[in-house]
Amino acid sequence: MTAAELKKLSVEELQKKLGDLKEELFNLRFQLAINQLENPMRISAVKKDIARVSTVLRQFELENTKA
Predict the structure, then answer these.
(1) In the CATH scheme, what architecture does the domain 3-66 have?
(2) What mean pLDDT is predicted for residues 5-24?
(3) Are 17 and 9 in contact (CB under 8 A)?
(4) pTM for the full predicted model
């Protein structure tokens, strides 16, 4: 998911997406620990998605404090 797509979402949707991504990352790490992970590159992709969502949330937060 790109940053431009994330900026179109509301804050509530972004927070829900962030929670879902963190849960997915937990599950992927668990699968890695028990050697059942099929695609290890998915972990880094999820981490990057978490960073994108966090960045967009922070931008919204900074915009609201300036107003």
Answers:
(1) Orthogonal Bundle (1.10)
(2) 96
(3) yes
(4) 0.92
